[in-house]
Amino acid sequence: MRLFHKRYHPPGTSPGTLVQAATPIAPRFRLVDYNGTQYREQDFTAPGECRPYLSADTVTWIHVQGNASPEAVRELGELLGLHELALEDTMNTGQRPKLEAYGDHIFAILNRPVLGEDSIRVEQVSLFAGARFLVSFHEGASDPFEPVRERLRRRAGLFTSRGSDYLLYSLIDLIIDAGFPLLEAVGERIEALDEQLVARPRRDTRVHIHQIKRELLLLRRMLWPQREVVNGLLRGDQALITPGARIYFRDCYDHTIQILDLIETYREMTASLLEMYIASVSNRLNDIMRVLTVISTLFIPLTFITGIYGMNFDNPQSPWSMPELRWYYGYPFVWLVIIATVIGLLVFFKRRKWW
Q1: φ, ψ at 267 (rounded to 5°)
Q2: Can you tell me the mean pLDDT for 342-346?
Q3: 114 near 104, Cβ under 8 Å?
Q4: For residue 22, pLDDT beyond 60
Q5: Per-residue pLDDT tens for 53-84?
Q6: pTM of the full predicted structure?
Q7: 213 vs 270: CA distance, rounded Å
Q8: Under a CB-based contact definition with an 8 Å cutoff, are residues 63 and 129 in contact?
Q9: What angle do CA 337, 339, 343 make, to 5 degrees?
Q10: Has residue 155 got a pLDDT over 50?
Q11: Alpha-carbon gap, residue 210 to 228, rounded angstroms
Q12: Domains plus CATH for the chain?
């Protein structure tokens, strides 16, 4: 299972070096500029085109979708005064979630879990927030922030009357809440496996259980640090986060706790499923062995009877010969003994609840 894609520098590379993705996704630059009275939205091809919006008394949100070139990222960083180490972490995807403060702006890396066709993957989202701007980078092919943009178009909620901190909260809340439908799908897979174990476990059941365990373990490893990121935004030393916005970040923190609790619950459930699978396989093996034992037990006396009458000691001069060999009803008599023995053993097994 491939959980996330990662790019990294070889050892000895200078700090702040930006590298291009091996298989880049064509980037798309989108700008949203708004305040309490106006809203503007447009696409642009070069970071320099957004310069006029940065000097206005508005909140400017620049979103970079896909894999931008190192030159474009460097130009955007110089335009907004973004730290080169933060830009390096933005380009080198697969980073651990973290929060850094760089003077007049803060930098956060989050992981957005995505459910694919046959596995779970994690996409990195990098966020730069200043007093009047916010820059977001998302490496995937589809834009996850369209719901936020739609709320801005409808001028819904508190966007138009709040600063960039509330926009930062909205993006983080959307990223964190992406874990709930994903974990719901994982829960449905666990329930399906549970029903399958009760009915009849298959050979590939254990493989599916181990796959879910690996996915949950890796999700926990990638999503656990996000709790500390949100907790860092709640602390009073972040001047860019106003007291009114901290209430909303507290709600994000609660959501991270809920997601981590769900992950732990599902990990315990998968461990129980694995134990249940082992018990089911063991019980099935016991059932098979019981059937084979009953069959073997039934044939032991039958083999003894047929073995005795297969010796054919028929000597009329000896008193130790088999008189049944000359009986008219000798053959039916042996069959009656065999049938009576089988019925007697079956009744005995039934009364002892061995069968």
Answers
A1: -65, -40
A2: 88
A3: no
A4: no
A5: 888 888 999 999 988 888 888 989 999 989 98
A6: 0.76
A7: 6
A8: no
A9: 115
A10: yes
A11: 29
A12: 28-280 (3.30.460.20), 287-351 (1.20.58.340)
